[in-house]
Write a structure and sequence with these properties.
The complex is a heterotetramer, with two copies of chain A (82 residues) and two copies of chain B (146 residues). Chain A has 82 residues and is an alpha+beta fold. Chain A has a single domain (2-76), classed as Roll (Ubiquitin-like (UB roll)), CATH 3.10.20. Chain A has helices spanning 8-14, 28-36, 40-45; strands spanning 2-6, 18-21, 53-56, 59-61, 72-76. In chain A, a hairpin with a 2-residue loop joins β3 (53-56) and β4 (59-61). The longest helix of chain A is centred in the middle third of the chain and has 9 residues, at 28-36. The mean pLDDT of chain A is 97. Chain B has a single domain (3-144), classed as Aldehyde Oxidoreductase, domain 3, CATH 3.90.1170. Chain B contains four helices and eight strands; from the N terminus they run βαββαβββαββα. Chain B has helices spanning 12-22, 54-69, 100-117, 137-142; strands spanning 3-6, 28-35, 43-50, 74-80, 82-84, 89-97, 120-126, 129-132. A four-stranded mixed beta sheet of chain B has the order 1-4-6-2, sandwiched between helices. Chain B has a four-stranded antiparallel beta sheet with strand order 5-3-7-8, with no helix packed on it. The longest helix of chain B has 18 residues, at 100-117. The radius of gyration of chain B is 15 Å and the shape is globular. The chains are: A alpha+beta (82), B alpha+beta (146). Chains in contact: A-B, B-C, C-D. The B-C interface holds B 11-17, 20, 24-39, 86-87, 89, 98, 100-101, 103-104, 107-108, 111, 142 and C 11-17, 20, 24-39, 86-87, 89, 98, 100-101, 103-104, 107-108, 111, 142. β2 of chain B pairs antiparallel with β2 of chain C.
Chain lengths: 82, 146, 146, 82
């Protein structure tokens, strides 16, 4: 089981801040492939990865990051703090 | 406390004085404060979303990295989330060092990393409409100098 | 007032807040404060001599030059002279700008010029002995980057 | 008539913060030559110009600066404000 967290327009577009899924995905990229297949909203959000960032267990990572042992994966747009 | 994240407003002047009082050995203190701007005069509010848990650890990591890279006496980061009015302070960093070059460089380092590596997202509310603030390429580019 | 020179103590936090309140259009505010350091623990006081008349015009010229060179909303310089206790604020600059890069660069510019071009001379009094603080070559060198 | 102002160790070494002199010196360098001849204290202060700065009418200048029309010339060590 993997907890997914969504923020900012990703959250708004998906209509939820979190979901829990069953997955065998080995990397973030693999997970994204699976998510794209869920429905149109997911397909839209993950269509252009240039505008998406990912964190695994609250650490910012690249899409090639392993999901081995991961409990929480988050997707969000580039940060705009400060 | 060197890193603080919360909804409550803070007073930059009072924070600067408290920070300075705690680092008596430092000759140079630099602060940066980010203020909610209303350039067109029609901003109702800024809403800041964040990633509880990751925010605190990301800011702590950025602060620790600054303490390692520069000759600092102390460094702090404050950042608000939630709904902010125009003119309100959004965030603040402060650095203290024996020499001004370190204090300035560390404050810029903190800001550059905070902008692109801390999980905050800003939304501007004007005339009932809310728009996410787009990340600026130059903010990502700013990281390359460190 | 954008340039102020005097003997009286000032409150950096209160000055930062007053400066920020006066520039509502700026998103980025940077401050630098210089504090009397007592590294060895035996400093009785710092005495600062200045050149009345020239001091004010030199600081005003430095401030005006910063306003010209950078995209600033405002800039200020405060500097004390006379006898200062360890831990007391010596001087402060603050800059306000739409973007942080300008606010940071302008504050560093103000400091670099103030260090080597404003007629102040510091003397450290310890154990009854008073020594003039020597100018540092790197302060003069710092001007070359502008 | 020219008003001379001295600051920091220059003032202390000369034992005065100001003096008024009669001079025909055309430049700051010429003036320094004349000052060196006044007494030992002046000769000492102006022996090594690497540690001396000059201002004419409250403007920082080089030693080749003209004294044409000048009313006040100041000598002092490199500044140490900030």
């Amino acid at each position: 089981m993997l907890d997914l967290r969504y923020f900012a327009w990703v959250r708004e577009r998906l209509g939820t801040a979190s979901e829990r899924i069953e997955t065998e995905a080995a990397t973030v990229a693999d997970l994204i492939e699976e998510l794209r297949a869920i429905d149109e909203a997911h397909a839209f959000v993950f269509a252009d990865l240039g505008g998406i960032r990912a964190a695994v267990d609250q650490e910012l990572v690249g899409f090639d990051a392993s999901l081995d042992g991961a409990r929480e994966v988050a997707f969000f747009p580039p940060m705009t703090g400060g | 406390m060197s890193v603080r994240v919360g909804e409550a407003a803070f007073d930059p002047g009072a924070e600067l004085n408290a920070f300075t009082a705690a680092v008596a050995g430092a000759g140079a203190v630099v602060s940066f404060s980010g203020i909610v701007r209303d350039l067109q005069g029609d901003l109702e509010a800024m809403e800041i979303e964040h990633y509880p848990g990751m925010t605190e650890s990301a800011l702590q990591a950025i602060r620790d990295e600054a303490m390692t890279r520069f000759s600092l006496t102390d460094a702090m980061i404050l950042h608000r989330h939630g709904r902010l009015e125009p003119g309100a302070p959004i965030m603040m960093v402060a650095t203290a060092a024996p020499h001004r070059a370190d204090a300035f460089a560390a404050a810029e380092f903190l800001m550059d990393y905070l902008k692109s590596r801390a999980p905050f997202w800003k939304k501007e509310v004007r005339a009932g409409r809310a728009d996410w603030v787009a990340a600026r390429d130059e903010d990502e580019d700013a990281l390359k100098r460190w």
